[in-house]
């Protein structure tokens, strides 16, 4: 296991876990979120291909469309 | 529709805009650029009505206001341009009348209709020949935001987008100078994104809308004055008052903006 941060909270994930796997493990609907990895947005169709590294800072948030 | 005559600033202009003219980033040339700018504001609700006031007051020469909604009682706590006497009237028309009364040199157009894929070409056509053109997305729903994004990308128009609901605000700017790296709204939130919140279902506090509208107007001025060219998503938490910033990233497979790079 490696340690990352998800929305500011520490989280242990399996080594080589993909970003998509982090959401899947937590039963989060990927279509409901955007994802920031170390202060850069990651397009949703890249989540399967990017693997977490120790110390990564992930932020998940939803679209806001009101005005 | 009146238009401020081109040329140098009048004595009255120097007095009126003195506080922003003092900024080296603005100065006389920047003020001339604001006079020459044309901004289309889509949505005249909480965001649009305030952004429009700031941009008109800063001396932006030409504004086009688009909204098909009428003023409702539940709008008044956050849409401060409107008052009880305006209830039932079209937002775009009332906003245009009030802004014109406050700023005689401003050239205004308004359209009391909802922006959609069919009228996008007609509504945005006047921007295409303008050197300092900009679109503000101040709409209140995801589908229209996707349409505004697509229309701007197709026409290579710069876009400043703000949104707010519940205790969350989001702001970003798409501009030709940063677009190859930033991608577009669809790269950030693909069309099949599931939304959880809107102002009408989850509520919002008036000043939270005002914060986002002010930031949107500020980003618009910064863009017109070449102070910054966007490429970042700024998220505001209206409970903690914290901002978070992240670099936007283009999706090479985006169906909306990838044709620009093929």
TrEMBL record, chain A:
Q: Which InterPro entries match?
A: Beta-grasp_dom_sf, Mopterin_synth/thiamin_S_b, Thi_S, ThiS/MoaD-like
Gene name as annotated: thiS
Source organism phylogeny: Bacteria, Pseudomonadati, Pseudomonadota, Gammaproteobacteria, Alteromonadales
Pfam families per UniProt: ThiS
Alphabetical list of SUPFAM superfamilies matching this protein: MoaD/ThiS
Quote the protein name from its UniProt record. Sulfur carrier protein ThiS
């Amino acid at each position: 296991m490696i340690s990352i941060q998800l929305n500011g909270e520490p989280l242990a994930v399996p080594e080589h876990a993909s970003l998509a796997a982090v959401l899947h493990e937590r039963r989060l609907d990927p279509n409901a979120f955007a994802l920031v990895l170390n202060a850069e947005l990651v397009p949703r169709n890249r989540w399967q291909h990017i693997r977490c590294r120790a110390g990564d800072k992930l932020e998940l948030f939803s679209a806001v469309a009101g005005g | 529709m009146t238009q401020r005559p081109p040329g140098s600033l009048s004595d009255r202009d120097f007095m009126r805009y003195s506080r922003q003219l003092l900024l080296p980033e603005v100065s006389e040339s920047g003020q001339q650029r604001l006079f020459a700018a044309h901004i289309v504001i889509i949505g005249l609700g909480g965001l649009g009505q305030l952004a429009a006031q700031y941009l008109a007051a800063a001396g932006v020469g030409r504004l086009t206001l688009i909204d098909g909604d009428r003023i409702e009682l539940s709008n008044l706590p956050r849409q401060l341009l409107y008052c009880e006497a305006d209830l039932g009237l079209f937002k775009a028309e009332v906003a245009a009348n009030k802004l014109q009364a406050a700023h005689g040199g401003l050239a205004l157009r308004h359209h009391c209709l909802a922006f959609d894929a069919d009228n996008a070409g007609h509504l945005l056509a006047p921007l295409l020949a303008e050197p300092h053109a900009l679109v503000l997305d101040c709409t209140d729903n995801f589908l229209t935001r996707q349409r505004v994004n697509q229309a701007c990308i197709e026409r290579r128009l710069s876009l400043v987008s703000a949104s707010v609901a519940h205790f969350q605000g989001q702001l970003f700017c798409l501009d030709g100078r940063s677009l190859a790296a930033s991608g577009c709204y669809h790269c950030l939130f693909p069309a099949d994104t599931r939304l959880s919140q809107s102002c009408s279902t989850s509520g919002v506090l008036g000043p939270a809308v005002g914060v986002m509208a002010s930031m949107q107007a500020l980003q618009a001025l910064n863009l017109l004055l070449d102070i910054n060219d966007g490429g970042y998503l700024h998220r505001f938490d209206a409970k903690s008052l914290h901002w978070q910033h992240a670099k936007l990233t283009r999706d090479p497979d985006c169906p909306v903006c990838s044709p620009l790079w093929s």
